[in-house]
Structures are given as C-alpha cells and as structure tokens.
Amino acid sequence: MKKLFLLLFPVCLFSQENCFDDGQKHYRSGMGLLDIKDTLESILFNNPKHVKFKENKNNTSYEKDEMYDFGDSASPTISIEKQTENKKITEKFSSFFNNQFSYIQFQKEKNSLYAVAQSSSGYWLLEIKNKKPKAYYIGFSKNTYINRNQKEKFIQNNKLYLDGSFLTVKSKIRFAEMEAVKDYLTFEVNLADIKKDSDNDGYNDFFEKLIYLNPQSKDTDGDGISDFDDLNPLHKSEKGKFISLYEEIIDLDASIYCNSENHYSFELYDSDCEYFQKVNPQKRRVLILSGTQAYQLNDDYRNLLGTFYGRIKNGSDEKTFYIPYFKKSSGGRIIAEYKNGKWSIFEDLQFKV
Ligand SMILES: [Ca+2]
Ligand SMILES: [Ca+2]
Ligand SMILES: [Ca+2]
C-alpha cells in the first residue's frame, strides 16, 4: 500500500514542479546528442526497415553532389530547358506548399505530379493529384543524405528510388562538416509504405511517429481539432494565467514558416511545464515536446529545437516574473509583469544565464 502511494504522489505535483524555479539547475535535455559520432555499424543498425539500399558506383559521390546548390546552373545534368520547366513546376508546388520545402527533383506521371523535397524535418515526397496537394514524409534515418542530382525518373513500379549516401559527423569543431561513411547508394522505398495514413488525418504514419503524434488517431490530444489542423496537436489547450504568459512568449519567436497555413513546419520547443504545454496559439504551429521526447528525438529535427525556456522565477513583488532562455548560441531572460489580468513581457538581452 505504502509503495503505491509513493508512486502516485509525484504525479499530482507535476505541473507546478516543472514550471517554477526550485533553486536547482535544469539543463535542456537532448542537447549534446550532436556530438555523438555515428559509426557505420550503428547507422546500418538504425536504418528503418522500410528503407532498402544498394550500391551503385555510377551515382554521384556525396562530396561532389554536395557542391551543387539547389537549382544550380553549374549542375551538369540540368539543361536550360529543363531548368525553365523546373521553375514552372516549382511555382506550382509552392502555390500549394508556400515556402516549406526545397525541391530536389520532379516527375510527371499520367495523373500526378511528384516532387522529392526537403524541409527542416527531412525528406518528403510531394504529390499534386487533381489539384490536391499531399505530402508524405519518407522516414529516412537522420544519417541519410539524398543527392540533389537524381536520375530522371525516381518513381518506377510503385517504388521510390533515390540516390544518396549515409553520413556521419566528420569534425566536432564545425557542426556542419559531414562525410559519407557509405557512398554511391540508391535507396528504395515502397510508395505504399510512405503513403500509409492509417487514421486518414492527412499526415502519413512516418511523420506522425517522428513528431510523437498518434498515427492511429485523427485527434491525438482529444481536443476536437484534427492533428492536421491543430496548432498545438500534442496537448489539449486550456486557459490560465501562466498559460497566457507562455502564449505571449511563443509569439516572440514568430517565424514565417510556422504559421497556421503551413502544416509541415512547426516551431519546436521542449518543456516539461504543463502551463507551457497547454498553450493555445493563434497564428503559429507549435510542437511542445517533453524533455524525454526531445532527448529521444532521433531525427533531423533534433537540430531544430529552438529557444529553450527555463523555469519561472518569482520576483519580490509577486507581479514580476523572470524566465531564463537559451538559444543555440545565446541566452537571456524574459521579464514578465502581470497587471490587470494582462501580461507585459520584455526580453532582457543583457542578462547572463
Ligand atoms: Ca495520419
Ligand atoms: Ca493522427
Ligand atoms: Ca487535436
């Protein structure tokens, strides 16, 4: 009996425990994962089962491919005519998907127009069919690089064939420096696997798994808004004094990508504070991961965790509150004042965290 009681006890304190300063240091979880040097062995082990690959020495090497920018005219495989055509198709895709993707290659089929594209979360297959856009997250591992130079036809016999390689971090000094541990690969994925959307909510299963949504439920958090339309799909929103404080704070990070129109771009946060998790954003699409989820997030998204907000510290007058924050290379604190039921917030950039 006693044991059970002890287990239940901490749950009741959950929200406050994780929101307010307790004099302890709380580091962001998930940070530091970038330093791990992935070996060929671990990369092969972690490669998802639906992704097959074969070596093909005629492919472009990672080193050579990486030198080309998107749509670079110096790329040897793209003629002027092709470039003009690609520009037109790019505009067509952008009219549906705004600025959420960079396009790698297009393919016209009888009833559909396809694109292989990249976003902050990884690689996607985009489809326009009967003027309806669909985006399917391909679900490659974080170590998978897809060449900018692809063969003319990447879809054949209901399979996706993409050239690329497996990468690892070359140097810890400069984060961006990568090298291929297995080069000249052609990846093969069944279209049926990536198109699978078990709950038919508009997000394919692979994307839902990546961002901790439920691929078997149209409405993960049960708030009546479908995953696809929910601006905070992981948590049911509520109203409250400190919840509205976090609503003000996330507006400080407003970016053009994570607006309500863009279903595939989220502003990512990690916080165990329930007040933060229960925000009801009006204009922005947010994913608020728990510290544990952020730590486990084993995909490209891990590079994209934005600002981390620490715990709320009470000022001496009970109207002023302080929240430290950490960005990739800087930090500061939010000063929040509560007057007549409203928050005024300021960023104190001079504050050293
Ligand atoms: Ca779904
Ligand atoms: Ca779902
Ligand atoms: Ca929902």
Provide the domain count: 2
Low-confidence stretches: 1-14, 30-35
Distance between the termini: 44 Å
Q: State mean pLDDT (0 to 100 scale).
A: 87
By secondary-structure content and strand pairing, the structural class works out as: alpha+beta
Bound small molecules, deduplicated:
calcium ion
Per the principal axes of the C-alpha atoms, what is the gross shape?
globular
**Count the helices. How many?**
10
Main β-sheet: number of strands, strand sense, barrel status? 5 strands, antiparallel
Q: Give the SSE string.
A: HHHEHHEEEEEEEEHHHEHEHEEEEE
In words, what does this structure look like?
The protein has two domains: 13-33 and 231-348, no CATH class; 47-195, no CATH class. The chain is built from ten helices and 16 strands. It has helices spanning 2-12, 14-17, 40-46, 62-66, 80-97, 191-195, 205-210, 241-252, 274-277, 291-296, and strands spanning 52-55, 102-108, 112-119, 122-129, 132-137, 144-146, 155-156, 159-169, 178-190, 267-270, 286-289, 308-309, 313-314, 320-326, 331-339, 342-348. The strands form four sheets. Strands 1, 6, 7, 8 and 9 form a five-stranded antiparallel sheet that branches. Strands 12, 13, 14, 15 and 16 form a five-stranded antiparallel sheet that branches. The chain has a four-stranded antiparallel sheet with strand order 2-3-4-5. It is globular and about 70 Å long. One calcium ion (CA) is lined by residues 219-221, 223, 225, 227, 230, 233.
